[in-house]
C-alpha cells in the first residue's frame, strides 16, 4: 500500500506544454467522433431523389418553378422547411441571404405551413424574399423521403448532387453550391 502512494508521488508532473497537448488531443478526438456521428446521421436522414421526381412546381403565388431548367444553368438549392420548425427559424435567414445574393437559384418548399395566405403573411413578417412552393399536404417532401426539417438538396442538371439536413451556416451552403458547380 505504501509503495503505491510512493509511486504516485514519484511520477513526474506534466509541463504546461504537455497539458496543452493533452487537452488539444482530447478535443480533437471528441471533435472527430462528433464529425463521424454527425456525418452518419446526416447521410441517413438526407432526402433521397425519387425515381420520377416532380421538378415542375408552382410557387405559392401561382408562378411556375422548373427545377430541372434552373439546375441546368447552375447548381440549385432546394430548401425544405416549415413555418412551425424552430430550427428553420435559425436557418431561413441564411437561405434568404443566399437567395438575395442571386449567385445561385434558390427554391424553398414550405412543408405543411398553412394556406397560401398564411404562408404569405409569414414570409412578409420575416422579410423572406426567396421563391417558395407551398407543400400544404407534404407530398413533395414525402416524395423525396424527407425525414427532418430543415433539409437541403442541391440539384445539378436535374439530378441530386448533394443532400443534407440540420443547421447549415451561410458559408457552408455557399461552399456546397460552389463545389457542385466545379465538380
Q: Overview of this structure, please?
A:
This protein has 183 residues and is α/β, with parallel strands linked by helices. The chain contains seven helices and seven strands, in the order ααββαβαβαβαββα. The strands form two sheets. The protein has a five-stranded mixed beta sheet with strand order 5-4-3-6-7. It has a two-stranded antiparallel ribbon with strand order 1-2. The radius of gyration is 23 Å and the shape is elongated.
Oligomer: single chain
Strand order of the largest sheet: 5-4-3-6-7
Structural class per helix/strand content? alpha/beta
Low-confidence stretches: none
> Would you count the extended β strands for me?
7
CA gyration radius, whole angstroms: 23 Å
The main sheet comes to:
5 strands, mixed
For the record, give the distance between the C-alpha atoms at the N and C termini, rounded to a whole number.
65 Å
- Approximate helicity band: 40-55%
Order of secondary-structure elements: HHEEHEHEHEHEEH
Beta-strand fraction estimate: 15-25%
Number of helices: 7
What's the rounded overall pLDDT mean? 92
Which geometry do the CA atoms define? elongated
Amino acid at each position: 500500500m505504501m509503495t503505491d502512494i510512493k509511486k504516485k508521488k514519484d511520477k513526474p508532473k506534466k509541463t504546461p506544454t504537455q497539458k496543452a497537448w493533452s487537452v488539444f488531443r482530447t478535443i480533437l478526438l471528441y471533435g472527430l467522433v462528433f464529425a463521424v456521428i454527425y456525418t452518419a446521421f446526416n447521410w441517413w436522414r438526407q432526402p433521397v431523389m425519387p425515381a420520377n421526381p416532380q421538378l415542375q412546381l408552382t410557387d405559392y403565388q401561382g408562378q411556375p418553378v422548373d427545377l430541372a431548367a434552373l439546375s441546368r444553368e447552375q447548381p440549385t438549392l432546394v430548401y425544405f422547411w416549415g413555418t412551425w420548425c424552430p430550427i428553420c427559424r435559425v436557418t431561413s435567414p441564411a437561405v434568404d441571404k443566399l437567395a438575395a445574393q442571386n449567385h445561385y437559384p434558390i427554391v424553398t418548399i414550405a412543408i405543411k405551413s398553412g394556406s397560401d395566405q398564411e404562408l404569405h403573411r409569414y414570409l412578409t413578417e420575416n422579410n423572406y424574399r426567396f421563391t417558395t412552393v407551398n407543400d400544404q399536404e407534404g407530398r413533395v417532401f414525402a416524395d423525396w423521403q424527407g425525414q427532418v426539417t430543415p433539409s437541403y438538396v442541391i440539384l445539378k442538371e436535374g439530378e441530386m448532387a448533394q443532400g443534407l439536413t440540420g443547421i447549415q451556416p451561410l458559408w457552408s451552403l455557399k461552399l456546397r453550391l460552389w463545389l457542385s458547380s466545379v465538380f
